[in-house]
Amino acid sequence: MIEKNLQIIRKKLPPEVSLVAVSKFHPVERLMEAYAAGQRIFAESRPQELAAKVPQMPSDVQWHFIGHLQTNKLKMVLPYVSLVQSVDSFHLLDAIAKWARANGRVLDVLLELHLGAEQTKQGFTEEEILSICQSHCHSEQSEESIRIRGLMGMASNTEDMAQVEREFARIEALYNKIKASGMEGFDILSIGMSGDWPIAVRHGATMVRIGTDIFGPREY
Ligand SMILES: *Cc1c(COP(=O)(O)O)cnc(C)c1O
């Protein structure tokens, strides 16, 4: 089933859009099914779960972190991931930069824009993101311990697709504005999940994060 699901998605997804398999709450056997079907990028949202799965999966898997990350959990996550998609506060951004410097690493991150209507969703405002990108532009990104590679956003959990469309249009505009300012290495727009990824692709997604449409419903 997982192989079939991946085939269906890959057929519809433009080849330049990366597919991230959101494997949170699913057992390693199911991740291995996706791996056998050629999937190499997986994303997790809880530090313990990520740390437990990494050693059980082949070493050519690329791991992304997509959940809320507390700074006291950095060492459970940062050694294993190639991209932190969910940087949602100045405090976290600073802590990741500090960890990367201390460990001789350069870490790729996305800034999460607070996009949906839900108050509970994490993320920066547009103004905050612009100010972070401006200060990064003045320093050489290549000399930093973190590279801001783009933006991540989650649309509202709603049946109102016009609203989802407006939200994706808003993050697309912000992404294009920052890109147009000449920010070096800024090339990832991570939007779209199981219910809404075709809309995200129409709004310039370069990366989609899909769980349920690949693995089926999560067991909590
Ligand atoms: C769980 C999750 C997804 C995947 O959601 P599905 O609806 O299962 O595709 C995508 N992005 C984030 C940030 C998530 O937490």
Topology:
Layout: H1 2-12, E1 18-22, H2 28-36, E2 41-44, H3 47-53, E3 62-65, H4 74-77, E4 81-87, H5 90-102, E5 107-113, H6 126-138, E6 146-153, H7 161-180, E7 188-191, H8 197-202, E8 207-210, H9 212-215
Parallel strand pairs: 1-2, 1-8, 2-3, 3-4, 4-5, 5-6, 6-7
Bound molecules: pyridoxal-5'-phosphate (PLP).
Pyridoxal-5'-phosphate is lined by residues 22, 24, 45, 66, 154, 193-194, 209-213.
**What is the percent of helical residues?**
25-40%
Total count of helical runs of at least 4 residues: 9
| Strand line-up in the sheet with most strands | 7-6-5-4-3-2-1-8
What is the number of beta strands?
8
Walk me through the structure:
- This protein has 220 residues and is α/β, with parallel strands linked by helices.
- Helix content is 40%, strand content 20%.
- It has helices at residues 2-12, 28-36, 47-53, 74-77, 90-102, 126-138, 161-180, 197-202, 212-215, and strands at 18-22, 41-44, 62-65, 81-87, 107-113, 146-153, 188-191, 207-210.
- Strands 7-6-5-4-3-2-1-8 form an 8-stranded parallel β-sheet.
- Helix 4 links the parallel strand 3 (62-65) and strand 4 (81-87).
- The longest helix has 20 residues, at 161-180.
- The two termini are 20 Å apart.
- 36% of the residues are buried.
- The model has no long low-confidence stretch (mean pLDDT 95).
- Pyridoxal-5'-phosphate (PLP) binds next to strand 8 and helix 9.
- Pyridoxal-5'-phosphate (PLP) binds at residues 22, 24, 45, 66, 154, 193-194, 209-213.
